[in-house]
Prior knowledge:
Blueprint: H1 7-24, E1 29-41, H2 50-69, E2 83-92, E3 111-115, E4 125-128, E5 133-137, H3 146-161, H4 187-199, E6 203-211, E7 223-224, E8 237-238, E9 244-245, E10 272-273, E11 280-281, E12 296-300, E13 309-315, E14 324-331, E15 338-341, E16 347-351, E17 362-366, H5 372-384
Parallel strand pairs: 1-2, 1-3, 3-5
Antiparallel strand pairs: 1-6, 4-5, 6-7, 8-9, 10-11, 12-13, 13-14, 15-16, 16-17
Amino acid sequence: MSAxxxxxxxxxxxxxxxxxxxxxxxxxxxxxxxxxxxxxxxxQSERGSPAETAARVGAMLDEATRVVEGxxxxxxxxxxxxxxxxxxxxxxxxxAPPAPPYACGxxxxxxxxxxxxxxxxxxxxxxxxxxxxxxxxxxxxFYRSPADAGITYAHEMGHLxxxxxxxxxxxxxxxxxxxxxxxxVPANLCQIYLDFAASRGAARATAACISGSGLPPSPDxxxxxxxxxxxxxxxxxxxxYGRCVDAPAACVDGHALPSRGADCSAAGRxxxxxxxxxxCVPCETAxxxxxxxxxxxxxxxxxxxxxxxLYRSTPRAGSASGGSELDLFLDxxxxxxxxARNPTDGVLYLVSPxxxxxxxxxxxxxxxxxxxAAVSGSIAARSARSExxxxxxxx
Length: 395
Ligand SMILES: [Zn+2]
């Protein structure tokens, strides 16, 4: 099977995508504050081994960081706030472990205590701003999920930073109180975290997926890096919402995921990209796709309508259950307002009403199984920024 796509059509894709992703990549990476706490673990909250306990604590802190640095709601009510939570050390609760009811922490400054039972009734944590410590419930054997515990941790750290215990004035945020804890971090909450970190003399590092230097609407506001851009100072790729997804850098080309089977042996632990979840896996686990069966094209519309993502699901070869695999991502970088398919060659035209740019009002992309290679080819060409992008793409 052979598929070709005209150079002018590829140029349309190039123009749109390079134009939009280039603008977002100009700002300098943000500096994040590293907000450390000692973590004291009650013996009953430990997991099977010290290493497992430390890993669980680390996962919780990563999730807390994701809450603050990631965008979960709709801007401008929600923003990427460059605060990273870390453990200065993780240790067993010193001395004889206390019995319930537990206090708000261990009484030590800058220390968080993890307890097997709830600290205050149904509440899952409490903070002592005077002692600058907090206590929170993670369950026996730390059964509470890191994502769930991370929300509480970020919340209680907000109290240490200065949010009052009654949450007055902080409704609709992470600090909603009364058990209502959204993941939203608006500018005023970010500011109190930043001031708190600065007052503690917190160390700073490069944020993985946030650029800018100030709170919105400053001239250089904190902004999530574009989806599929490589993370700063660590492996992985940015999810477009301020978070770095832990995936081998070898499976990210800067703006899009490479196609299935692309070599990623440079990452050491892997040999081939799946092309779907940015995973880099041993070659023998690569999933074969049945090109003779029809695929499905999906458009994931972003909340704001301006970061639409196109992806393709293709049936797996030899799959009795009829399973399919997402094998192509394309960050359109713009809203998709319409589409049409040319039945003679299978080319699908996507229409994007870009503001103030008449030459970007429409572009085309080949898709569907019959022209799958043309799609992959256009993405590869885009990442390589090659002038010969339009030449000789065939399946
Ligand atoms: Zn609270």
